[in-house]
Input
Amino acid sequence: MKSDWRVIANIITLTIDGREIRCKEGERLLWAALDHGIYIPNLCAVREADLPFGGCRLCLVEIEGRRSPVAACSQHVENGMVVRTDTPQIKRLRRTAFELLLSHHHLDCAHCPRNKKCELQKIAAHQGFKLKVERLRLIPREMPVDSSHPLFTYDPNKCVLCGKCIWACQCRGLGVIDFAYRGLETRISTFDNMPWADTGCDSCLKCVEVCPVGALVEKDGAA
Ligand code: FES
Output
């Protein structure tokens, strides 16, 4: 009986968009919502990561009693918490964050290998956003595509800088890539811009697997 009490003590109840859900104490809000079929847009969150990256700001939600919206990927659930994922304020903030990403993303869905499997498309469809920049200035980037690896290419002009590929590479114990440069020039790079295949990369393709957009894609016939 003692162990039953422990299990019960670990389960908490919260409300998301009027729906009561039960989940484990200590869980992050984003995963608790997704596990219960409540979609909160997200691009940079990795469930297995110890610390949330928190870069895309698409997962903002409102919590009753809090003055400002919080990122669901960083927020731990609390018993009795009341969460709203789609208030007018949240929609406005999310749309701005989305447009900010699009403002320097090379939008060419028709010719992108990730067409119809891209997280940006999924978020746009779910939120009713257009896949175009309307309120911000378009800042096209024209950085060279890195084709130095025999199995995949990296197009920094499509990269949303979610950091998932860096995380995946670190999980392999390799860590051959990281963020490099600053501002609009920021991209993923190998150390000293070395050709990717010369870095110790073991071609596991995990970085390609976790890329939510068409920045890291397998070369034709590489699979
Ligand atoms: S998923 Fe939460 S900030 Fe990106």
User: Anything to note?
Assistant: Residues 142-223 form a domain with the Alpha-Beta Plaits fold (CATH 3.30.70.20).
